[in-house]
Amino acid sequence: MTKRYPPISAKLPVFMHGADYNPDQWLHDPSIFEQDIRLMKLANCNVMAIGIFSWAALEPEEGRFEFGWLDHVLDTFAANGLYAWLATPSGARPAWMSQQYPEVLRVGPNRVRNLHGMRHNHCYTSPVYREKTAIMNTKIAERYAHHPAVVGWHISNEFGGECHCEFCQKAFRGWLKEKYGSLEALNRAWWTTFWSHTYNDWSQVESPAPHGETMVHGQNLDWRRFVSDQTIDFYKHETKPLKAANPELPCTTNMMDLFYGLDYRSFAEALDVISWDAYPTWHEAASDGSIAAWFAFNHDLFRSLKGKPFMLMESTPSLTNWQPVSKLKRPGMHKLSSLQAVAHGSDTVQYFQWRKSRGSSEKFHGAVVDHVGHEHTRVFQDVAELGATLSKLTDVIGTTVPAETAILFDWDNRWAVNDAQGPRNSGIHYENTVMQHYRALWEMGVPTDIVGSGDDFAKYKLLLLPMAYLLRAETGAKIEKFVREGGTVAVTYWSGVVDENDLCYLDGFPGPLRTTVGIWAEEIEGLHDHERNVITLAEGNPLGFAGTFEVREICELIHAETAETLGVYGSDFYAGRPALTVNRLGKGQAYYLAARVSDPRFYESFYGKLAADAGIRRAIDAALPEGVTATVRTDGERDYVFVMNFSGREHSIALDDQSYYDLESGENVTELFMPMNSVRLLKRLSRS
Ligand code: GLA
Ligand code: ZN
């Protein structure tokens, strides 16, 4: 069965390759634009994201609009076979607006209003800001929604941040009223009897503040949910006139890696296509394995948000200028880094930015065209070569990653687990823990989705729950069903502790998972940085590997109720007590890991066994050295396999059968010689 999503734009049904383009920075010198058109074609680019911060150029004075320059850019694009993601300019506002209407500026948690400046410095609730964006977006929509060069809308830029102004306080109270119905319900959910924090009038409820309330966890959590919802609401407000003018044009906004402040999973519902900005700090260490795994996780997350191809909206063609140290990409890394996104499901490779700015804070940020202004640079050639490679990958467009493994990752869990004052305030390390588990799958080349509680688990064979601290009762029930029906689940310590209101479960942790995992977690302790314990796996245990593995930071003291003990603690007063268990339930099994094992070999052996038992297919069935991984995209008939070497060394990989075809050389291959920083693109008959 062939399964393929339609291209992101029917106008441009090939890999989109291009950059953020800011022609309004160069309007004083028209020859630059002429050069740019020539260079864009030379660089094998076909799409640009335009107008992202152009408000001042589009509306230099209140009510006076200047579209001539943008008309010229888009018409010239159309005449030259170039396309555009056209931005709404709300990511930054003109000085006249801040001066005339100070309410558009953000108020900090300390209740002080910002001055004009920077970007993303606006209130998402302000009626004036909403009105001004509606006028602007309506004008843009009326003028360009049917322009032949426009493939879609780039809404604002990297949404984020919060505002504590009076409009936002009022909106927060309205959101709470809608959610709880009554103050009594809110007080119960927030456990406000603690320290006499009970509210008896809605007007007393405020957003958290450094000089006010910060200790009511339910309140902190709801504020984060509100900020997220209010931002999504603003996004929807922006898209209304665009959709009205042409419902066919896709809308997106560029997201950021594992961004903390917004629940991207619910944001995703409002987007037509997911796009994100990836800036890996390559070449920090001898091997790029850790950084590659982190970005792989993010790519998997962004693909999973909609379960279909996404866009790499920004990346740097060479270096950034905001990281502590700005390293150049070593030979090969531009291709490897760009195709990593493709390997995980991106149908575009785009950069920030096309041409280096002459002044201001990003003048040294990498760009396709350097200050020298011509094509005879290393970076330009890297980009042009990548464009040539992408043009051979049109068949990959619309294919998906066939994941049979998933990791649960919810934003509200993340907020709650990091906010909790508990076993390890010096570092609970939730995100690192998720990565620790993901890394093992990445090293083995196991295709993985990153899912939320609301997603369907039934299509997976193996589900990982690292620190699922905030876990709704219904999610617990869904996981129990998943296991009973034959699924394998791996749950860690500090799971099933609180409900959706951040209130502790009273019937023994891990709350709604207790029956599923067959254990009761009675106590948990944090370890100091210098402390260690170990887990010793019993000889002959059904996992097929034994040994002693180091434990750091977190130890939970559990009772195996219906579960079988596979490993025990090695020291301290709880030596000999269970630390790794399995519970067989219905047709499936649920593992429970009570401590933070620090040795990566444990996770590889553990998940290697679980994946093998569950019959999970790896991208390729070959031995992969550390730092070398593989992914697969498929249309159900053909698999496109990407083998990537981030190890910092060269390797030879023996492939698992004779049927691999190298998409670049056009030859059949059985062994891959892989220099450092290299990627190979292969095709074979589908195995899914
Ligand atoms: C972000 C922004 C861009 C630019 C780049 C620099 O991704 O969206 O406007 O500032 O960072 O890396
Ligand atoms: Zn506000």
Can you give a write-up of this model?
With 688 residues, this protein is an alpha/beta fold. The chain has three domains: 315 residues, Alpha-Beta Barrel (TIM Barrel), CATH 3.20.20.80; 209 residues, Rossmann fold (3-Layer(aba) Sandwich); 58 residues, Golgi alpha-mannosidase II (Immunoglobulin-like), CATH 2.60.40.1180. The strands form four sheets. Strands 10, 11, 12, 13, 14, 15, 16, 17, 18, 19 and 20 form an eleven-stranded mixed sheet that branches. A nine-stranded parallel sheet has the order 5-4-3-2-1-9-8-7-6. β24 and β25 form a beta hairpin. α8 runs antiparallel to α13 and α10 packs across α14. The longest helix is centred in the middle third of the chain and has 29 residues. Bound molecules: alpha-D-galactopyranose (GLA) and zinc ion. Zinc ion (ZN) binds next to α6.
- Our count of domains comes out at 3
Describe the biggest sheet?
Answer: 11 strands, mixed
Rg from Cα: 26 Å
Return the CATH class of the largest domain.
Alpha Beta
Helical coverage, percent range: 25-40%
SS content category: alpha/beta
Q: How many beta strands in the DSSP annotation?
A: 27
- CATH topology category name of the largest domain: TIM Barrel
End-to-end span in angstroms?
Answer: 10 Å
Low-pLDDT ranges: none
CATH architecture of the largest domain: Alpha-Beta Barrel
